[in-house]
Amino acid sequence: MRVPIELIDGILGYLYDDPASLSNCSVASFAFTSTSQRKLFASVTITPPRCDANDHVSPTLRKLRQALKESPHLATYIQTLQLEDVGQIVTCNEGLTHHWLALDEDFPRLLRMLPAVRKLVWNNGMNWFNWFALPCTTRQAIQTALVEWPLTHLEVMGMLNFPLSSLKPAESLQHVELRAVHFVQETPSPGGCAPRLKSLSLVEPCRRLLPELATWFVQDMDMSELQSLSFKTYGGYYPKGEDLLSMLRILERSASSIRTLDVSPALEGTSIQCSLAPTPLALSSYPTTSGTDVTVVPSLALPSLEYPNLHTLSLGFEISDLPLYTGESSGYTSAQWVSKSLENLAESPDQRLKTIQLRCHLVQADPAVTFDQGIWKSLVKQMCSPKLGRLREVEVQIHAVYSEAKAAMPVVSNLLQDVMLKPLKERGVNLRIEEIS
Predict the structure, then answer these.
(1) Separation between Cα atoms, residue 1 and residue 241, nearest integer Å
(2) How many CA atoms lie within 13 A of 143 on its CB side?
(3) pLDDT at 191
(4) How far apart are CA 195 and CA 193, in angstroms?
(5) N or C: which end of the chain has fewer CB within 10 A?
(6) Phi and psi based region of residue 125 (left: phi greater than 0; alpha: psi -120 to 50; beta: remaining)
(7) Is the separation of the CB atoms in 95 and 56 below 8 Å?
(8) 355-363/175-184 β-pairing
């Protein structure tokens, strides 16, 4: 009896994280071969050579090329290509040090063998990787692949001089994540149909070029259908709200389509008066160039735009005993930014917010002793506004920055329950508090 392909696919689906079993299934029966191979080669990870190896070619890359030579049809099954620890340094015979990928002549040839990659993950590991450390032939092969592949997802982590202009020709691109990436535009972006992004994540972007980065996404990418925006600069130094000003430019273009919004700003050196003004300026009037004095901007909080599709809002902030340049507690600046953002969103017409997630970093030696009910009551007051009538879930994540403060976190969780649970429950809103490491 012939087993239906749907049943085979369902059975082998349970082995998605067991490559050894999938490999056995591929040779156990001809009926299983095609489905097993598709799942086995759907995602391929290229790892660096051993640091003590004389051969600088990645063993996984060499095995993959050999497999594709023997069975070319496997190349069409590879939809996700992950490059791990690309920043790892090796020493060649001349005593010079290079990134291992820069010495691997097989890599450009491998890219030309893959026709169906939909997701590329470039992880440089603990070491930064300079794009110009790659040979010209390798750079050209990567840029050609970005254009020719049906690429929908791109994730790049820890890279210097990344060529943004190479993204615009990738017309199928929908999801972009840049984490600690410094960019350069080698040539003006070519014309043609710009990629229509569905999600964009910018984590720890380069401060010096941040306004230019925002301008590039606004001008060279189609943001009209962006559904997810994640912007995280917490822990960096962006004086006078430079990071938020850049984020707001992107948000202005995509507010009508955004479904999930995740913002964790630095707020370092930002004048506290900026976050308390009653009426924000139109976004088009925000200064957009580096070095501009932005203390005149009435508000850096999320503005009262139309968010008809926004369902989930995540905001990161800190509560700290450390003083800002203003001489006031940095915790109040950060919490007031959150409070003002919630107030503005409540005023947005036709808002449909269902879930609010708050990530709070406690920069305090003993957060239980210095627990400030006033901060949390002000946030609860905004979340209990009748204008947020569709709100159903509030998630609070708390993180102790100092290791000696971790023992106090259960007490802080109980204090938060005391302050937040009753008023939110009366509004029909579920509360969940989580301690994160």
Answers:
(1) 68
(2) 20
(3) 61
(4) 7
(5) N
(6) left
(7) no
(8) unpaired
